[in-house]
Amino acid sequence: MNRFFIFILLMLPIGSIHGMSVWISLFNSHQVRSVVITAWNGPLTISDADGIHYQISDGRAVYANLRDGKIWLTDEFKEIGSFARIIIKGADSTAVVRVRPVSPQIEARNYEDVVMLTAEIDRIQIINKIDEDRYIAGVVEAETGQGHTEEFYKAKSIICRTYLYGNINRHEGEGFHLCDEVHCQVYKGQCKNRNTILTAVWATKNIIITDHASNPILATYHSNCGGETESAQNVWQSSLPYLVPIIDPYCSASPGARWQRAIPLNDWIVYLVNKGYELNPNVVANFNFQQERRTPNYRIGNITIPMRQIRTDWQLRSAFFSISVEEGNLIFRGRGYGHGVGLCQEGAMEMGRRGFKYVEIINYYYRDVKLSYVNTLELHVPEF
């Protein structure tokens, strides 16, 4: 690939979180009222605003329950006390905080650095104060899984870091930077693949993708584009010069490349009528629809429906589909998985397997952008 790629050292007018921590709200969409904290790979210390300390030995646990507006902390033998906020961290650099919500029941996850529990009216807010690089490694693993090439992981690390810098104060009014779910970036704690993923994060340290105004780009990504990415204009009605459709031959053999869904034809007719379609009983309607290249709208008779709306209404894997009527059913034959804008993850994985470098992968999916080192980024970091 011989496309020109700009890679400069850029002093952005937006400060550095290098060497600092980001605050991530854990289990953010759940009203956690009870949680088990276990010391993993070393002892933990617990403190509150008054500096009261309690130590959890390696492999032992404490139980935190929300009651009467306080966090009541107990171990297996006794009640430790009630607190408005507690801070949990490893007694040394190798210890990990294992968090398992029990109300509601959620699988345990391991977190590095510091975990803070705060009593709110109807929940325990759980925040991980985590080093930027460790956070990005956790996001990369949660979003893409293990077993991919280092060049792909380098590209993905830069994309996740770009999102972090572009959205660092998204939840500032709530006392944290980002949440751990798809609203921000999926983060499930400590990265397990430290040899490959963490190495890729360190190899691309402080690098983000910027536009020609030197701002972090909207570094969107999705699972599989089905052979052609989508424009930001068609999905979010916001035209961005670096998020334009491109033909992608790399994802066509991937698991998310093709899908099919059948629904009763009468259900489709009812749907169209509810959208304003004027059904003429004397005319045989032709519901067949072919989408060889991505198109923004489905048109039939007197109505036009955005493809993204059909995808949402019918909970389809993508908006890149064709329609045929077969034996009383309407068949969606689709391509891709996700909104289709920006980096196609399965395509980028294949590019990595074929020997493309991370700069080539990024430049293929985001057009006319720059890679920049960030040295200044102002953060409003909450204090303990």
List the helices and strands and how they pair.
Elements lengths: L5 E3 L12 E6 L7 E7 L3 E4 L5 E4 L4 E7 L2 E5 L4 E5 L1 E6 L5 E8 L5 E3 L2 E6 L4 E8 H13 L5 H17 L11 E2 L14 H10 L3 E4 L10 E2 L9 H5 L21 E7 H10 L22 E4 L2 E4 H8 L6 E6 L2 E7 L7 E2 H9 L4 H8 L4 E4 L11
Parallel strand pairs: 1-23, 2-14, 16-22
Antiparallel strand pairs: 2-13, 3-6, 3-10, 4-5, 4-9, 6-7, 7-8, 9-12, 10-11, 12-13, 15-23, 17-21, 18-19, 20-21
Helix pairs in contact: 1-2, 1-3, 2-3, 2-7, 2-8
Walk me through the structure:
This protein is an alpha+beta fold. Among the domains are: 31-122, no CATH class; 258-335, no CATH class. 21% of the residues lie in helices and 30% in strands. The chain contains eight helices and 23 strands. It has helices at residues 132-144, 150-166, 194-203, 232-236, 265-274, 307-314, 345-353, 358-365, and strands spanning 6-8, 21-26, 34-40, 44-47, 53-56, 61-67, 70-74, 79-83, 85-90, 96-103, 109-111, 114-119, 124-131, 178-179, 207-210, 221-222, 258-264, 297-300, 303-306, 321-326, 329-335, 343-344, 370-373. It has a seven-stranded mixed beta sheet. A six-stranded antiparallel beta sheet has the order 8-7-6-3-10-11, with no helix packed on it. Strand 12 (114-119) and strand 13 (124-131) form a beta hairpin. The termini are far apart. Mean pLDDT is 90; it is low at 1-18 and 377-384.
